[in-house]
Write a structure and sequence with these properties.
Layout: E1 4-7, E2 11-18, E3 32-38, H1 40-50, E4 55-62, H2 65-76, E5 80-87, E6 94-100, E7 105-111, H3 122-129, E8 133-136, H4 141-153, E9 157-162, H5 170-173, E10 178-181, H6 183-190, H7 195-206, E11 210-211
Parallel strand pairs: 1-4, 1-8, 2-6, 4-5, 8-9, 9-10, 10-11
Antiparallel strand pairs: 2-3, 6-7
Length: 215
């Protein structure tokens, strides 16, 4: 069993390093191109596994070329894949990310694909019950909320890496023990302009054990 399990985005990223951002309607040669797995939840368990923590991913992947790459990448980094369902005939979640060498910034264009939503099986629920920590990122929101409820009953800590402002996200925030929102998420969700005020509101409104805002 895994100490950490994750539910959320698992993305096939194509990273293109550019000298600078191109002008619209022109051509430019990339300095470097590489492909790798991405998504907050998936990246989190890969990082944990690389650090020696038993980690697993729970979700749905396509058996197209991108989905197979992601599945094999989990295996490559020692992530438990027993919680993954492989589906035929669907398009994977993919993205193209431009990295500007000049400004050290990034621009991401993504396609969420058309995979069906995750419906937790008994096996997947058991993985959550036996874990020490559940990592969610707001993708597959209904499954994440159900998983967080299971985690609460099982004394499994819920860590929410909050980046996307999805409809109904308050349901997940209310079940979170460790909340790590981006600055953009924190300011927009609380309708504040000061990040410290936003942190205070998030802490008082949802009462997690910790709030850490990334910038």
């Amino acid at each position: 069993m895994s100490d950490i399990v994750a539910i959320g985005a698992c993305v096939m990223d194509t990273l293109m390093t550019l000298s600078h951002y191109p002008t619209e309607d022109t051509k430019m040669r990339a300095l470097d191109v590489k492909q790798c797995g991405g998504g907050p939840a998936a990246t989190g368990v890969v990082a944990a596994s690389k650090l020696g923590v038993k980690s697993g991913f729970i979700g749905v992947l396509s058996d197209d070329s991108s989905g197979k790459f992601l599945y094999d990448d989990f295996i490559r980094y020692g992530v438990d894949i027993n919680g993954i369902e492989m589906k035929s005939g669907y398009r994977s979640f993919t993205s193209c990310i431009w990295l500007s060498k000049q400004k050290a910034s990034r621009t991401c264009v993504f396609d969420k694909g058309n995979l069906p939503s995750l419906a937790l099986s008994d096996c997947q629920k058991k993985l959550i019950e036996n874990a020490k920590l559940l990592l969610v990122d707001g993708n597959d929101l209904n499954a994440a909320v159900e998983a967080a409820k299971i985690a609460r009953k099982s004394n499994t800590t819920v860590l929410y890496d909050a980046g996307g402002l999805y409809d109904g996200v308050e349901r997940l925030l209310a079940l979170t023990d460790i909340l790590i929102p981006s600055e953009e998420f924190a300011l927009k969700h609380t309708e504040q302009e000061d990040v410290r005020k936003a942190a205070k509101i998030l802490s008082e409104r949802y009462q997690p054990k910790a709030v850490i805002i990334t910038r």
